[in-house]
Design a protein that fits this description.
single chain, alpha+beta, Rossmann fold, five-stranded antiparallel beta sheet, 27% strand, flat, Tetratricopeptide repeat protein, TPR-like_helical_dom_sf
């Protein structure tokens, strides 16, 4: 695991609700599904399922949508997968006289994948529920009760017929539509025939519509399916390819050792720089202080953080271990920070779930907005 954590240099300092400054480090995590690690060249052979009368083109639309998701997976600014173009797959199928029905056979799919130079073939199955429709009541704007006098000034600033400033409140009947989608992708290695990834994802999308809503874009039933698939692909993203996390490394603001006043002044100056987003200067001050006093676990730990964010993991671990040796001068919570740092560099910490266990070590995704989930 340690070898798979690739540090990316970041020198932003996080302040705010944390009591002491924290250095922000970007960590590249491996795909959560072990079998997907090393997969690079993909051929999407088949995506099938049962169409609905209200979306008869789902089978035709699902494959290119899934393929586009895979093709747009981005790691460190570059496309991660080489997705074999469907026109090439179609041409090879015709040359080898392979029917579309035959590609549902595992051996045939692997043979086809080998012919198009893919290292992995993908097949997927979808299942779509019927549209669930329900009604509910909501408050809405009714008729105008009071309006401004239609003077020239009112018309100029509010527009013709827009002088109303008090409306009646009415109750209207609204409609809610929901669709549930299941999507099961399966990845098979061409060389070994081993299924390295198979998982069922579930998602639902809902659309609410009320009468008299202006500028409302009506959603079709098919768009609800498309929205559900987008949610599913977002769920898949971390399973199939490396992804980035932002790791906030909390600095330690002091210890119980007999730090000389002159050294403490330099140390505090370093904390001041860190609090003001000047981590380079902060690290220089920590280094200066440590050259005059090497018995401070807080100094040793903070120097470890300075090296950690630069990706110098081995050197950082050395300073963390020095801090641990001196941890009699630390509080129990600060000793926990030191231990967590060492465990992380040894690959013994589940970074994805760490924030749930330790609020002093907040983790968040770098790209968790829906619009950037495929990057």
């Amino acid at each position: 695991m340690k070898n798979l954590l690739i540090a990316v240099i970041a020198v932003t300092v996080i302040t705010g609700c944390l009591s002491t400054p924290s250095a922000k480090k970007s960590v590249l995590m491996p795909a959560k599904i072990n079998g997907m690690q090393g997969v690079k060249s993909i051929a999407v052979i088949q995506v099938d399922g049962t169409d609905k009368p209200w979306y008869s083109d789902l089978k035709k639309d699902a494959l290119p949508k899934f393929e586009a998701f895979l093709a747009n997976v981005d790691v460190d600014g570059e496309r991660y997968f080489n997705v074999i173009d469907q026109s090439h797959i179609k041409r090879v199928k015709e040359e080898q006289q392979i029917s579309s029905q035959a590609t549902s056979d595992e051996e045939t799919a692997i043979k086809l994948g080998r012919s198009v130079s893919a290292d992995t073939v993908f097949m997927a199955h979808y299942q779509v529920s019927d549209i669930e429709t329900s009604t509910y009541q909501a408050k809405a704007q009714g008729e105008c009760l009071k309006e401004h006098e239609a003077t020239e000034k009112v018309t100029k600033f509010l527009g013709e017929g827009s002088g109303c400033y008090e409306y009646d409140e009415i109750t209207v009947d609204c409609e809610k539509k929901t669709v549930n989608v299941e999507f099961t992708p399966k990845a098979t290695k061409v060389e070994s025939g081993e299924i390295v990834y198979a998982k069922t994802y579930k998602a639902s999308a809902t659309f609410k519509e009320c009468p008299n809503e202006e500028n409302k874009t009506l959603k079709s039933n098919s768009s609800l399916v498309s929205d559900s698939l987008d949610i599913i692909f977002a769920q898949m993203r971390r399973d199939i390819a490396p992804y980035s996390l932002l790791l906030n490394l909390k600095l330690i603001d002091g210890d119980n050792t007999a730090m000389p006043e002159t050294v403490k002044g330099v140390f505090d100056r370093g904390l001041f720089f860190a609090e003001n987003d000047m981590l380079d200067r902060a690290c220089a001050k920590f280094e200066q202080a440590a050259s005059d006093y090497s018995q401070s676990p807080a100094l040793m730990y903070n120097l470890g953080v300075c090296l950690d964010i630069k990706g110098e993991s081995d050197s950082a671990k050395g300073f963390y271990e020095q801090a641990l040796d001196l941890s009699a001068g630390l509080s129990s919570s600060d000793t926990g920070l030191v231990l967590n740092a060492i465990k992380r560099l040894e690959g013994k910490t589940d970074l994805d779930n760490h924030n749930k266990r330790d609020p002093d070590w907040p983790l968040k995704s770098m790209q968790d907005s829906i619009t950037n989930l495929f990057q």
